[in-house]
Amino acid sequence: MAGILAWFWNERFWLPHNVTWADLQSTEEAAFPQAEDLYLAFPLAFCIFVIRMLFERFIAKPCALGLKVQANGPQKAQPNAILEKVFTAITKHPDEKRLEGLSKQLDWDVRSIQRWFRQRRNQEKPSTLRKFCESMWRFTFYLYIFTYGVRFLKKTPWLWNTRQCWNGYPYQPLMPDLHYYYIVELSFYWSLMFSQFIDIKRKDFGIMFTHHIVAVTLLSFSYVTNLTRVGTLILCLHDVADIILEAAKMANYCKCQKLSDLLFFTFAFVFIVSRLGIYPLWILNTTFFELYEALGNFPALWVFNILLVILQILHCLWSYLIIKAAYKAFTKGKVAKDDRSDIESSSDEEETVPRSKTPHSTVATNGTGGANGTNGYLSGTCSEEH
Question: Can you give the pLDDT at residue 136?
Fold first, then answer.
């Protein structure tokens, strides 16, 4: 194991020429980032997860109920053993042939069976209350860590001149505020890595999972190699748009449509400017050119830049989804209704009880020919983006 670690942490790969790991050892005069510090992220990630559970239960939920956020989930499908067996064991999206077979077996018309499967799929969707609580937690954390980052960075020279990120490297002592900022952000991303499998599933799950892996990798390696100054700039730049996004989600869940739309367009503007404008012109410029000029070429430089470019590709994908949503908002008049809403919904779902093919059964089950209702709710476009 020692041999493997020595090979992996080869100085000639990770560090510039004439720099060794010995140069980054902490002394009595100055502290430097140590690989062992990264172990702190795991217990802290667990603590953040516990804090989140407590926050959602005792703070976010009462706030949601006070704002009259819908507590119940989508309407449940009528119990039916045969359809339930098909849904759980065979398919959640039956084809036309299977629908015809079930129609004959149950003496229901095909449209009623289709409606049952839609309601049953929607039944597994999270309630608006749960989504509000998750968004409120993320909003609170992003607001806190962004505020902390701004207060820290405004006192640093590299915020105003990115060449200061590399001035004096590797002899850049680790400041306590920077250490706290880095480890908390790393711990939060580790908590997201694990909690996303139990969180509300989004349609950009794959993109988000890739983003979290890249973020954790960049944070870890940049910390060990003491490239933390530019890391703080990247963290602060990424957090600003997320605050507005989570606020837009909460407004949408509270049915404050105008506020939700306003926040969504604000988020879209901030996201595109920060991720497609400032990020490449400010961050990629200093890592591709200023870093090379200051420290020369070394293999890890390209590893970091490749990961940063992957982030930029993800930014472009998200920007496409955001622009697409904004276009639909202009053409249809509402941000909150589009083809990426959390809950499937259509006009033919108004009847909540299946109709039988025979008049006798219809009267027996529906009384007056069918009960009217609404199947679930429509969630905002902004609930899918990140």
Answer: 97
3-state secondary structure 84-140: HHHHHHCCCCCCHHHHHHHHHHHCECHHHHHHHHHHHHHHCCCCHHHHHHHHHHHHH
Rounded to whole angstroms, the Cα distance separating 91 from 332 reads 33
End-to-end Cα, the chain, rounded Å: 39
Nearest to 250 by CA among 143, 125, 347: 143
CA distance 210 to 60: 28
Average pLDDT by consecutive 10-residue portion of the chain (386 residues)? Answer: 88 91 91 94 96 96 94 81 90 91 91 91 86 95 98 96 94 95 97 83 80 95 96 97 96 94 95 97 96 93 96 95 87 51 37 41 36 34 42
Give the pTM.
0.80
Cross-strand partners of 3: none
> What pLDDT, on a 0 to 100 scale, did the predictor assign at position 159?
96
> How far is C-alpha 260 from the chain's CA centre?
18
CA atoms of 216 and 117, how far apart (whole Å)? 39
Closest CA to 321 of 178, 191, 203: 203
Residue 334, pLDDT score: 54
Instruction: Characterise 107 by phi-psi region: left (phi > 0), alpha (psi -120 to 50), beta (else).
Output: left
Residue 372: the pLDDT is 35
d(CA 372, CA 318): 38
Q: Which residues contact 314 (CB under 8 A, 6 or more apart)?
A: 207, 210, 211, 214
Using alpha carbons only, give the angle 81, 86, 89 rounded to the nearest 5 degrees.
110
Neighbour tally for 242: CB within 10 Å: 20
Query: Cα–Cα distances in Å, from 28 out to 19, 31, 173, 300, 329?
Result: 20, 7, 11, 29, 59
Q: Return the closest-CA partner of residue 73 out of 124, 121, 127, 116.
A: 127
Give dist(CA 337, CA 379) in Å, integer: 7
- Cα separation, 149 vs 187, in Å, equals 15
With 0-12 / 13-18 / 19 or more C-beta atoms within 10 angstroms meaning exposed / middle / buried, residue 264 is: buried
The answer to whether the Cα torsion of 321, 322, 324, 325 is positive or negative is positive
Identify the residue whose tokens are 């503007």.
269
* Rounded Cα distance, 259 and 250, in Å: 10
